[in-house]
Amino acid sequence: MRSSRGAWAGRVASITALLAGSLVSCVLGREGTPSITNATDGAGGLPSAPAGSGGGGSGGMATSGSGGAGGADCSTLPVPPGDNQCPLVCTGGCDGPNDTNCIIQCSGGACSGDTVTCPPNFSCEVRCADGEACDETTIQCPPKYACRVICANATESCEAADIQCGTAAFCGLDCGLGDTACKNTQLHCGTGKCDASCGGGDQPSVECTGACPCTSC
To answer: Distance (Å, rounded) from C-alpha 18 to C-alpha 202?
Structure first.
C-alpha cells in the first residue's frame, strides 16, 4: 500500500513539474513562438472593417447637373451641322469648323430697315460694318446655334436694331466703341446664354428672359 501511494505521489510530482515548466515557457516566451492576440475587435466577434471602407455606395458613378434653371444646359455650345454649302444669305462667306459659321456682311445700307434671318443648321455672325449699316434692322438669330451681332465703331451702326435671339444657344451683341453704335438698340434674349458688351456712350436695352446667364452692359 505504501509503495502504491509512493508511486502515485511520484506521478503527481512529475505532472506538477511539467505543468510548471510549460507555464514558465509561456510567460517568458521562447524565440520563434508566435504571440497570440485578439483578432476579433469588432462587435459579435467579427474583424473590424478597414478604415475608410463602407457599404451601400454608388460604385463611383459620377453625376452631372444641368447648367441653369429648368434644366437648360448653359455650359456647352452645340456644333452646327452645316448644309454642305454656304447659303447665299451669308454674304461674308462661311468660316469656322467645316465652314458652318455663316457671316452676314451688312454695309452701305444693304441691311438698313430690313429683316436679316440667319439660316438654320449654321451658327451666325452679323457684321454691321459702317454707319447706319443695321439701322432699324430686325435680326433673327438661328434656332439652337450661336449668334452674334457686331456693330462697327461708327455713327449709329446698329441704331434701333431689333435682335431676336429665340432658341439660340448663345446670343451676343458687341457695340464696340462707337458713342451711338447701339443707340435705341434692343436685344431680346431667349433660352440660351445672352451677353451684351459696350464701350461707347449709348447702351442697348437688354431683355433677359431665359434660364441661362444674361449679361448687359
So the answer is: 109
Report d(CA 124, CA 83) in Å as an integer.
Answer: 14
Residue with cell 451684351: 196
What is the longest distance spanned by two Cα atoms in the chain? Answer: 142
pLDDT in tens, 138-165: 999 999 999 999 999 988 999 999 999 9
What is the separation of C-alpha 71 from the centre of its chain, rounded to a whole number of angstroms? Answer: 13
Give the separation between CA 99 and CA 96, rounded to whole angstroms.
Answer: 5
